[in-house]
């Protein structure tokens, strides 16, 4: 079975075509700047060089049509149209309506639309991709895989905020958590690497990238995670503040005469690593600065690691132990300095890092010595494969 995985953003469309017989990638690509001048598609068919084509993409339907033509026609063709058996769509927010992936129907689309108030930048774009695919591929089954679904196993005592309950009842204000597809994939892979049944594991997943979150996975279920009502909560991120005293928001709005929209923009677009360093939101530049001895970069790395270690310690306590701490995401997979320094702060927990093993980027590896009581695992995340697996399971039913 060949499964097409689609991830629509407001002005982009990422895709992968996978052969689920052996879970290999047949082709992948991205359509950028949809609805903006200078739009293009970058496409790679396995075994061939990447191709970049400038194309006018006024909307997502045109972008999806071009994607399908790249997959099925001309020199980049790798599959016949009828050989695409199903499509899996990444959907950011499922609210409380969805605790697992579902086959897309008109009713499901309506429910996703109703969740758009909780993810106004993401769900509408996800729906554009779903609508376009259903129109272009009317006989192909479609599946929605939600970023929030994995975290629906959290207890009410964990996900409820201590504010008047009427706001939960009226607006659904509670902790939802995000990056669920990644946390699910990494925790399952960690159990395999540990050689233990998933149900018998206690795993902490650190998905560290421009957006970042930590998740406590006990017996294969999410029991706590750092992101909250929105992806703004938790760790310091590229341009997001992460956790702050909420009174800062009203204080700055009053002192600076800021609107709610302006304050939101500061916290989401002008904070985080970018604000701490005064240099960049790109941790690759921060890493280079640390190596070069730049004090601002050193301070930023220290502040970032402080938050990560704080969450790891809290989640280890919450689960009454931990078997493995996993690193995923662009930063987690590629920054050996950060992993080593975090490991050095976790020796009390039983982490014994093998420094030589840790000198790597983007490979699946146990980074610790054989004697380490708690394993530190590097597991490159694969959200597309997780989406494809869920799609196959539902379509097979």
From TrEMBL:
<protein>
    <recommendedName>
        <fullName>Acetate kinase</fullName>
        <ecNumber>2.7.2.1</ecNumber>
    </recommendedName>
</protein>
<feature type="binding site">
    <location>
        <position position="90"/>
    </location>
    <ligand>
        <name>substrate</name>
    </ligand>
</feature>
<keyword id="KW-0460">Magnesium</keyword>
<dbReference type="GO" id="GO:0008776">
    <property type="term" value="F:acetate kinase activity"/>
</dbReference>
<feature type="binding site">
    <location>
        <position position="7"/>
    </location>
    <ligand>
        <name>Mg(2+)</name>
    </ligand>
</feature>
<dbReference type="GO" id="GO:0000287">
    <property type="term" value="F:magnesium ion binding"/>
</dbReference>
<keyword id="KW-0067">ATP-binding</keyword>
<feature type="binding site">
    <location>
        <begin position="282"/>
        <end position="284"/>
    </location>
    <ligand>
        <name>ATP</name>
    </ligand>
</feature>
<feature type="site" description="Transition state stabilizer">
    <location>
        <position position="179"/>
    </location>
</feature>
<keyword id="KW-0963">Cytoplasm</keyword>
<dbReference type="GO" id="GO:0005524">
    <property type="term" value="F:ATP binding"/>
</dbReference>
<keyword id="KW-0418">Kinase</keyword>
<comment type="function">
    <text>Catalyzes the formation of acetyl phosphate from acetate and ATP. Can also catalyze the reverse reaction.</text>
</comment>
<feature type="binding site">
    <location>
        <begin position="330"/>
        <end position="334"/>
    </location>
    <ligand>
        <name>ATP</name>
    </ligand>
</feature>
<comment type="subunit">
    <text>Homodimer.</text>
</comment>
<keyword id="KW-0808">Transferase</keyword>
<comment type="similarity">
    <text>Belongs to the acetokinase family.</text>
</comment>
<dbReference type="InterPro" id="IPR043129">
    <property type="entry name" value="ATPase_NBD"/>
</dbReference>
<keyword id="KW-0479">Metal-binding</keyword>
<dbReference type="InterPro" id="IPR004372">
    <property type="entry name" value="Ac/propionate_kinase"/>
</dbReference>
<keyword id="KW-0547">Nucleotide-binding</keyword>
<comment type="pathway">
    <text>Metabolic intermediate biosynthesis; acetyl-CoA biosynthesis; acetyl-CoA from acetate: step 1/2.</text>
</comment>
<feature type="site" description="Transition state stabilizer">
    <location>
        <position position="240"/>
    </location>
</feature>
<feature type="binding site">
    <location>
        <begin position="207"/>
        <end position="211"/>
    </location>
    <ligand>
        <name>ATP</name>
    </ligand>
</feature>
<dbReference type="InterPro" id="IPR023865">
    <property type="entry name" value="Aliphatic_acid_kinase_CS"/>
</dbReference>
<dbReference type="InterPro" id="IPR000890">
    <property type="entry name" value="Aliphatic_acid_kin_short-chain"/>
</dbReference>
<feature type="binding site">
    <location>
        <position position="383"/>
    </location>
    <ligand>
        <name>Mg(2+)</name>
    </ligand>
</feature>
<dbReference type="Pfam" id="PF00871">
    <property type="entry name" value="Acetate_kinase"/>
</dbReference>
<dbReference type="GO" id="GO:0005737">
    <property type="term" value="C:cytoplasm"/>
</dbReference>
<dbReference type="GO" id="GO:0006085">
    <property type="term" value="P:acetyl-CoA biosynthetic process"/>
</dbReference>
<dbReference type="GO" id="GO:0006083">
    <property type="term" value="P:acetate metabolic process"/>
</dbReference>
<feature type="binding site">
    <location>
        <position position="14"/>
    </location>
    <ligand>
        <name>ATP</name>
    </ligand>
</feature>
<feature type="active site" description="Proton donor/acceptor">
    <location>
        <position position="147"/>
    </location>
</feature>
């Amino acid at each position: 079975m060949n499964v097409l995985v689609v991830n629509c953003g407001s002005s982009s469309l990422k895709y992968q075509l996978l052969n689920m017989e052996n879970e290999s990638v047949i082709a992948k690509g991205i359509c950028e700047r949809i609805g903006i001048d200078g739009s293009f598609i970058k496409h790679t068919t396995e075994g061939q060089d990447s191709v970049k084509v400038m194309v006018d993409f006024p909307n997502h339907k045109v972008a999806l049509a071009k994607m399908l033509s790249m997959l099925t026609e001309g020199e980049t063709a790798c599959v016949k149209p009828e050989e695409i058996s199903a499509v899996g769509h990444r959907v950011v927010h499922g609210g409380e309506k969805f605790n697992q992936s579902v086959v897309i129907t008109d009713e499901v689309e309506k429910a996703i639309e109703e969740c758009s108030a909780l993810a106004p930048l993401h769900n509408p774009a996800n729906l554009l991709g779903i609508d376009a695919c259903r129109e272009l591929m009317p006989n192909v089954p479609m599946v929605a895989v939600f970023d929030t679904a994995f975290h629906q196993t959290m207890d009410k005592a964990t996900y409820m905020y201590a504010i008047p309950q009427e706001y939960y009842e009226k607006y659904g204000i509670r902790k939802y958590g995000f990056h669920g597809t990644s946390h699910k994939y990494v925790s399952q892979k960690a159990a395999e690497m540990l050689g233990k049944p998933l149900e018998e594991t206690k795993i902490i997943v650190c998905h560290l990238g421009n957006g970042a979150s930590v998740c406590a996975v006990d017996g294969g279920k999410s029991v706590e995670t750092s992101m909250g009502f929105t992806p703004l909560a938790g760790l310091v991120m590229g341009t997001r503040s992460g956790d702050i005293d909420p009174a800062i928001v009203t204080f700055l709005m009053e002192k600076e005469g800021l609107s709610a929209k302006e304050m939101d923009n500061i916290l989401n677009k002008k904070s985080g690593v970018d604000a701490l360093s005064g240099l960049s939101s790109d941790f690759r530049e921060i890493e280079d600065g640390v190596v070069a001895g730049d004090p601002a970069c050193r301070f930023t790395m220290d502040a970032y690691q402080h938050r990560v270690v704080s969450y790891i310690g809290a989640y280890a306590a919450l689960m009454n132990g931990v078997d493995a701490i996993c690193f995923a995401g662009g930063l987690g997979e590629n920054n050996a300095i950060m992993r080593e320094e975090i490991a050095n702060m976790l020796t009390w927990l039983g982490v014994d890092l093998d420094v030589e093993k840790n000198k790597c980027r983007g490979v699946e590896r146990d980074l610790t010595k054989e004697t380490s009581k708690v394993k530190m695992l590097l597991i490159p995340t694969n959200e597309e494969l997780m989406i494809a697996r869920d799609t196959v399971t539902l379509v097979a039913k």
